[in-house]
Amino acid sequence: MGVLHLMAGEGSATNLEMSPAYPATKFKGGEKGGDDDDMAGPKPMLPYSSMFIFSPTNPIRRGAHFVVNLKYFDFFIMVVISLSSIALAAEDPVDENSFRNTVLMYFDYAFTGVFTVEMLLKVMDLGIILHPGSYLREFWNFMDAVVVICAAVSFGFDM
Question: Strand locations in 59-144, DSSP E?
């Protein structure tokens, strides 16, 4: 009777949902449901001032933090990176002054603008380099900043 009672009562999925031994586990149809991001919630803002200008209570920094932590922000940036790569591959290397290259140059300006806005939002949210967790303390962000700055300088020389 003890085994039957365990299978039908105490060990069922409905009782596991309410069990204090499994507080973070949700069962739906016998499988674990929900995303890890949903359970963790939004990332907290760093407690340091950003660039010694934006305190954690500053509305501009709070807005930048909100945008950077939107659910699809990183997905949007990855789509723009993919489109930028496709545009780079579509350029005509033989005729530099072709109509296609002129149109792609304007797309390149737009892509660089999106990447610049992304970098500025992240710098406003995280700070530049001095605090733990700052933007340039992560290798990928450092590489991103070098690419964006080089593209902006290149556009400056083209004009």
Answer: none
Prediction pTM value: 0.72
The region, left, alpha or beta by phi > 0 then psi within -120 to 50, assigned to residue 30 is left
Find the Cα–Cα–Cα–Cα dihedral 152, 156, 157, 159, rounded to 10°. Answer: 130
Q: Are 127 and 119 in contact (CB under 8 A)?
A: no
Radius of gyration (Cα) for the chain, nearest Å?
24
Sign of CA dihedral 130, 134, 135, 140: positive
pLDDT digits (tens, 9 = 90+) for 57-91: 999 999 999 999 999 999 999 999 999 999 999 99
Using alpha carbons, list the distances in angstroms from residue 61 to 57, 87, 116, 124.
Answer: 7, 33, 16, 6
User: 10 Å Cβ neighbour count for 144?
Assistant: 19
